[in-house]
Amino acid sequence: xxxxxxxxxxxxxxxxxxxxxxxxxxxxxxxxxxxxxxxxxxxxxxxxxxxxxxxxxxxxxxxxxxxxxxxxxxxxxxxxxxxxxxxxxxxxxxxxxxxxxxxxxxxxxxxxxxxxxxxxxxxxxxxxxxxxxxxxxxxxxxxxxxxxxxxxxxx
Length: 155
Known about the structure:
Elements: H1 7-16, H2 20-24, H3 28-45, H4 47-55, H5 59-64, H6 68-71, H7 74-90, H8 99-113, E1 119-120, E2 123-124, H9 126-154
Antiparallel strand pairs: 1-2
Helix pairs in contact: 1-7, 3-7, 7-8, 8-9
């Protein structure tokens, strides 16, 4: 008997690599497409090199390295893969459960756009860490708006 994976397991595999959660859920074609898209965007944007420079503390080099036209596709692909794997694993019942992921992708993209300008404690933190920081308020806004919509529609 094929048992669906736990939604948190699918979510974590999708965080590790977009497409893995879909493959875990048995959606081989969808998972393969997401994997291929992730590799194309990653290579074209030079994202791994950008991550390396960021972790080495070479923020100015990390800011100059990526192709931002390609890199701005990454947050949407990444958050879609996570949401889709989570939803498919145990079937979300809320029709607006995608909102936190959409807001997360939007805020990460905005963080990426401003990553060469916004300083935290007087320091540029670059195109890897600033978008990661922007994810938190994006998810909070998305969950907050979901909660408001659910409260209003139940009234």
